[in-house]
Amino acid sequence: MDLAHRAYAARMRGATIVRLLLAASLLLSGCGDDGAPVARSTPGASDPAAPAVEEEATSLPPGAQPGLDDLDGDGKPDPTCSTQDFGAGLTLRIPCEIPNPHEPAEGTTLVKDSLFRLPAYEANLDGISGALVTARDTGGAKVVIMIFNSDNLFATGADTLNESHTLDPLIALLNAKFAGAAVQVRGHTDATGTASANQALSERRAETVRAYLTGHGMQASGVTAVGLGSTRPLVEETNDAGRAFNRRVELAIRLP
User: Fold this and answer.
1) Alpha-carbon span 177 to 230, nearest angstrom
2) Per-residue pLDDT averaged across 130-153, rounded?
3) How many CB atoms lie within 10 A of CB 20?
4) Separation between Cα atoms, residue 114 and residue 233, nearest integer Å
5) CATH H superfamily, domain 3-32+67-254
6) Span 58-75, mean pLDDT?
7) Distance separating alpha carbons of residues 181 and 71, to the nearest angstrom
8) What DSSP state is assigned to residue 137?
């Protein structure tokens, strides 16, 4: 492991599971019993201070959709201006302005339209460094994407977990905060080697994680696995730090 990669891992380990639990709790607090978003304390329709519907609609940027989440904390839902396909059925609404975007590891640069630019939180699960990204799908349902560095889960080129209990804290978190959600395990590699080898490795790693989660008591409505090889990088691979950053496993959690 080179110095840049060590620095990245150290930075990610600075976050704690408490922070991830808090972030997850805040996300879930935005949903009612039926999964519909619950409005924050903004002026109601009967409030004289509430703007007219027509005024709110005309204030949106051209082509934007009304927002569902108050991402910047100004008391108003933030509109989305586009959607983006991240592969394997994961298409998300993209806010017109993105508050709290993640910054990549030192020495790396985000690729254009990187998933990592969306609103995010750093997280740590007993040594599994990662991040938590929040979004909405095209239908408006909440999606939480947990991103874990593969180097903390697998040896180089391997598809068996480094330690059998590594994912146990993750299962406990998923059951506590996301029980009944649909989960897609998404494997990614860097671009070293052939595309076919990377695709196969990403599929095997995703399946390993899926099998462990479902075999150790994760409560979900459905868990699937998919490999995307090196086709969906987060950062440019101009150095070892970039390649390490792109080696990852994601959990795309669709809230019920």
Assistant:
1) 30
2) 94
3) 23
4) 7
5) OmpA-like domain (3.30.1330.60)
6) 87
7) 22
8) B
Cβ pair 13, 127 in contact under 8 A:
yes
Q: 10 Å Cβ neighbour count for 141?
A: 17
pLDDT in tens, 88-129: 999 999 999 998 888 888 899 999 999 999 988 777 766 666
The answer to whether the CB of 106 falls within 8 A of the CB of 8 is yes
Q: Where are the domains of the chain?
A: 3-32+67-254
Q: Which residues of 96-128 are buried (b: 16+ CB within 10 A; e: fewer)?
A: eeeeeebebbebbebbeebbbbbbbbbbbbeeb
CB–CB of 81/94 below 8 Å? yes
CA–CA separation, 120 and 117 (whole Å): 8
Percent with pLDDT over 70 in the chain: 75
Angle between helices 168-177 and 195-215 (to 10 degrees): 70
Going by C-beta distance under 8 Å and a sequence separation of 6 or more, which residues neighbour residue 51? 43, 59
Backbone angles phi, psi at 35, to 5 degrees: 85, -5
